[in-house]
Amino acid sequence: MIEHKIFMELEEIHYKYERLTSLIGILHQFIAEQVNIIGAPEHSLNDALYEIELEMDANNDRLKELFQKKGGAA
User: Fold this and answer.
1) Model pTM above 0.85
2) Calpha distance 14→27 (Å, rounded)
3) CB of 26 within 8 A of CB of 36?
4) Hey, is 32 helix, strand or coil?
5) How many CA atoms, within 13 angstroms, populate the side-chain half-sphere of residue 23?
6) Dist CA 60 CA 13 (whole Å)
7) How far apart are CA 73 and CA 61, in angstroms?
8) Residue-wise pLDDT tens for the chain (74 aa)?
């Protein structure tokens, strides 16, 4: 039962990793454009970077907890 719960946690972390990878791809498209991006919300790049940073921090904390539960090194 515990291993199933850990597996589900890892699946959720993987899903969030894929989502963050997608956001990074979007940012690469913005950055590749000319400086004068027309139609982009004013702070969209900063907001996306901030969201990525928060999600990555949260996922790192969750991974540390999972490794500690399994007796691994954090």
Assistant:
1) no
2) 20
3) no
4) helix
5) 19
6) 9
7) 13
8) 778 888 888 888 888 888 888 888 887 777 666 545 566 666 777 788 888 888 888 888 888 888 787 765 54
User: Is there a contact between 44 and 30 (Cβ–Cβ < 8 Å)?
Assistant: yes
Q: In this structure, what token pair is assigned to residue 18?
A: 């894929």
Q: State the distance between the two ends of the chain, measured CA to CA, in whole angstroms.
A: 22
Listed in sequence order, the residues at least 6 apart from 55 whose beta carbon sits closer than 8 Å to its beta carbon are 16, 19, 20
Tokens of 46: 């900063």
* Tokens matching residue 3: 């291993």
- Tokens, residue 61: 């904390």
